[in-house]
Amino acid sequence: MLQYIMRRLLQLIPVLLGMTFVVFLIIRAIPGDPAVVILGQQATEEAVAALRETLGLNNPWYVQYFEYLKNLFTGDLGQSIRTRTPVNEEIWPYLAATFELSMFAIIIAVFIGVNAGIISAWFQNSWFDYTAMILALVGVSIPIFWLGLMMQYQFSLQWDWFPTTGREDVRNPVNAITNLYIFDTIIQGRFDQTLDVLRHLAMPGIALATIPMAIIARMTRSSMLEVMKSDYIRTARAKGEKMFWVVYRHSLKNAVIPVLTVIGLQTGLLLGGAILTETIFGLPGIGRYIYEAISSRDYPVIQSGILVVAFIFVMINLIVDILYSIIDPRIRYS
Amino acid sequence: MNKKAWLLFFVLLLTVSTALFGCSSDDGASEDGGDGGTSEEGGSDAEDTLVFGRGGDSVGLDPITVTDGESFKVTKNVFETLIEFGKEDTEVNPGLAAEWDVSEDGLTYTFTLQEGVTFHDGEAFNADAVVYNFERWASGTEDKFYYYKSMFGGFGDDEGHVIESVTATDDMTVEIKLKRPQAPFLKNLAMSPFGIASPKALDEMGDDEFNENPVGTGPFKFVEWRRNERIVLEKFEDYWQEGLPKLNQVIFRSIPENSARLNALTSGEIDLADGVNPSDSAQVEGNDNLQLFERPSMNVGYLGLTTTREPFDDPKVRQAMNHAINRQAIVDAFFEGRAEVAKNPIPPVIAGYNDDIEGYEYDVDRAKELLEEAGLGDGFEMDLWAMPVPRPYMPDGQKVAEAIQNDLAAVGITANIVTNEWATYLDKARLGEADAFLLGWTGDNGDADNFLYVLLDQDNIGSNNYTYYENQDLHDLLIEARSEVDEDKRNQLYMEAQEIIHEDAPWVPLAHSTPLMAGSANLKDFVAHPTGSDNLMDAYFE
Question: Gene3D superfamilies from the entry (chain B) (predicted)?
Fold first, then answer.
């Protein structure tokens, strides 16, 4: 097992190198001059030329690239052109905000999605099955932008359940330590604030959870249906095992592997793909950080941001792979 | 079957209750977290804190280093300038300089500074502090201090640098000598970038740290900045103007989506919302808890006609374009009427606006006639560039372009709509590659020069004169106006200039839009400033 993990970690190196290179190339292919964008419409040509020089944009691309790699190895993610702050200082609060949001969303998605899928499979072709699967279809197709605004209208303006936007009540701000606000408020004993943070997380969390929830539900259902047709399930039922245990213990264990793959993929996607949710709900997350960097051609931020997200994605995949073997001892790695 | 049904019920109950867990525990929170709640239940203690919701975060808080409006919105309240703009206009008023005197030749300005002003770090404000700031700016570079170069022509010994010297003649008097007269000099000094910073704080922190911990003399002092989340300012107790500011705290929040921001205002999470969609104005006006603010227009949205490209090298064709486009319809449809139809390149609030000019009327027959005269009776084909991003002066470039396309078709002109990614769009338009392009401008200092010279003078071809329009008479007028110190004479020059531009018609001026803001109804004495940087010191809650 340890050997397997080590080997997977080694395999990460070319993957990560490849990632840096692709990110680097894609950005250079975007039209437009970063110096012009930074200085704005009103800049003179000399100023643009001077800025290109200071940013090293005049060097050949491979010089720029190796410079970037060299810095990465020393833990330097570059400095934001726009804000003039080192990226590794700047990025953590955004990452923490997104992490908190996606974890919240994935917990909702897994809990509801897996259960809905199981029950749908258990009572195949029942009204529950039909309703759940129609809802799942709606869930994958619903535009988050629209859903977010509708939720704000209904849950905030009409019913006053949740606040519309943000991570916290700015009039009663959280004293950030790790930037994971739930954790921060708990260790400071400010449970009123913990509730406030949860209230702020509720709507974006649910909005973000809809798509993964729907995908997980459908995957669980089909995977469960397959397993429940197998002989050992029939045997278990014949022995008089309670149906609940047949489903939740015997079937689920074998049906969970493909579901786990989907959950892993969706978690990765949530971390990098929450831009729309973050925009609608005014959350300072990594998606918005990268998005704003793209619109101002903030090369170091774009590169490092995407790299960090990609890195997390790869790590989640690794964790999922390791989980396979823990859940299903039949899976062996040689 | 019975058992099954029970089980199903049980599992459903579990699922639903878990899903609702968030909600039920949250209901409790809204009760005991009353002080953090909505404005109705906020009570008296929340009423001296203003939460200002806007579209984006600031880039930096050292005003001289930044160029974006979101940064100036904050620094305007932390820093003060020697000269201040009027509350609702861009007239010149005393600021940190209580009085000033201009020499006959317009070359020497003597400023008598306001007594009793201190910086937020306790240092006294005096002539040395002013000199320190000017010396700092003058030793900069364009990528560091963009607006200094843009307004005062350069740095240090640069040929274009208009400031010869800045000296403290005594403790409270500063003398600024210019190399040549600069008519908008006082207006330039009133711009947010030229806020006076604490020399001690600058020395101790250095530029980078100061950019995140600004220290000025303004009504509010800086407390905290968490990027993209909040910027917190607090009442400066030793502020020199008695009884001000009235608010105790100001918190800036960024909520990028206009509709979501309005939702946050409606629910009471914020007290003031920048950037309200024109289409949402009815919703604001229909809500008794809200009020709508109109920011006086200091912008222009236009269709530029590249005068070096056929057939727009013929003034008749350009005039025909002006007659062919129904501006009123565009303003009604895409600005929801929250804009004024433009007839000049400068908006009416700006001194020197020529109201005697009669705008080109929407007249299809006249347009056809002019095309006939230009030998294009059968019409022609052209590219029409549509802006890919919304701007206050152009809420939806694509739709405006479609409307123009329609209007042009009526006079026999076939327009193909072209668009590009924004930076490319600007690059190519600057190089004169577009036949006709939508664009606009928001004024920096409320001066006519900042529109006419910057956008239409031949000196700025390849820079902001995207139409490549050249007219020697106009150039002479604009150059003369730049150094004319007599306000009336100067305005006269600009009026003449607008006549020439009207005749040559390098643009189809479309609209001067009125950006909208909304606030809670109990917010008093807030005034939206045309520059977009709002002074919050008079605002209070009733």
Answer: Dipeptide-binding Protein, Domain 1 (3.90.76.10), Dipeptide-binding Protein, Domain 3 (3.10.105.10), Periplasmic binding protein-like II (3.40.190.10)
